[in-house]
Automatic annotation (TrEMBL):
Keywords in alphabetical order: Plasmid
Region annotation Disordered: where it falls in the sequence: 1-97, 220-282
UniProt name for this protein: PcfK-like protein
Taxonomic path: Bacteria, Bacillati, Bacillota, Clostridia, Eubacteriales
Species of the source: Vescimonas fastidiosa
Biased composition (Basic and acidic residues): 29-44, 65-97, 220-229, 247-267
Domain of life of the source: Bacteria
Length: 282
């Protein structure tokens, strides 16, 4: 009995000595579980907060539409500014041309009588070198040069920046055609494939040449009027629509260019100044 009693006492003492250690371990495990749970809760809160922030930051349909409209307004404004600059440059070139023409005319007006006579004769001679109809060129040119020596006012008209012998002979061509048409009407002659031949008196050719230099509003001096053509704005539409509208806008431009080229070809033919095309002899 004594030995067993001692063993039981030892076991009881051991259990009493280990009880605080077990209790500490349980408390530690409980604290760790609480910390882990708290960390998970905080992580969940942070994730939820991030999701809410992303939702707030994502643009709504109304914001997207406003941004799109603002971008379109910016592009349109840039286009309008570029067009305003291009128009200002075009107007500056037109003013420079008009100023140069006015300066040339004022210079001619300021010349003395002898100077304007000599300058007008030289100008008529220089212009005549461009012509190919020799017999007609020489006769009309000599007539105009003689008038320049006889009439100072006429010589000043010859020095006008828009006046030249090429346009003078175009004026004569136009008058000769009108003369031939009027003669056909007077004689009740109908146009035919064979054409119509008539004689234009020399005196009429000289008269028309003189009229041309006295007429400061002659049709032949007007030339082709230049106009500023604004470029349309194609922003804010699909690429297919832009291409279709651009192609549609290019068609009239191509027609105008073709017409301009045809006019130039006609001008080059007019420069030859042959009455044979009208079947009118001078």
């Amino acid at each position: 009995m004594g030995v067993y009693s001692e063993i039981a006492a030892d076991l009881r003492d051991n259990v009493q000595d280990r009880s605080p250690t077990i209790q500490d371990a349980a408390e530690l495990a409980s604290r760790r579980a609480d910390d882990r749970q708290q960390a998970e809760e905080e992580q969940a809160k942070a994730l939820l907060s991030q999701m809410q922030q992303n939702a707030d930051d994502s643009p709504s349909p109304s914001n997207l539409e406003a941004d799109k409209k603002a971008e379109e307004d910016r592009k349109r404004q840039e286009h309008e500014q570029a067009e305003a600059k291009r128009k200002a440059e075009w107007e500056a070139r037109q003013r420079a041309k008009e100023e140069a023409e006015q300066a040339a005319w004022e210079n001619a007006v300021a010349m003395s009588d002898d100077e304007v006579m000599a300058a007008s004769m030289k100008r008529v001679g220089d212009d005549s070198e461009r012509l190919t109809r020799r017999n007609m060129k020489q006769c009309v040119t000599e007539y105009i040069q003689t008038l320049c020596l006889e009439d100072v006012a006429f010589a000043r008209n010859v020095m006008h920046p828009r006046k030249n012998m090429v346009n003078c002979f175009r004026y004569i061509n136009r008058k000769a055609l009108e003369f031939a048409k009027q003669e056909m009407e007077d004689n009740d002659v109908k146009p035919s494939a064979e054409g119509y031949g008539t004689d234009v008196p020399d005196g009429l050719c000289y008269q028309w040449a003189e009229e041309y230099f006295k007429d400061l509003n002659a049709k032949e001096d007007r030339g082709q009027e230049e106009k500023f053509v604004p470029r349309p704005y194609y922003g804010g539409r699909s690429s297919t629509t832009k291409k279709a509208e651009k192609k549609k806008a290019e068609k009239p431009a191509a027609k105008k260019e073709k017409a301009a080229n045809t006019a130039k070809e006609n001008e080059s033919l007019d420069d030859q100044l042959s009455f044979d095309s009208l079947e009118v002899s001078a």
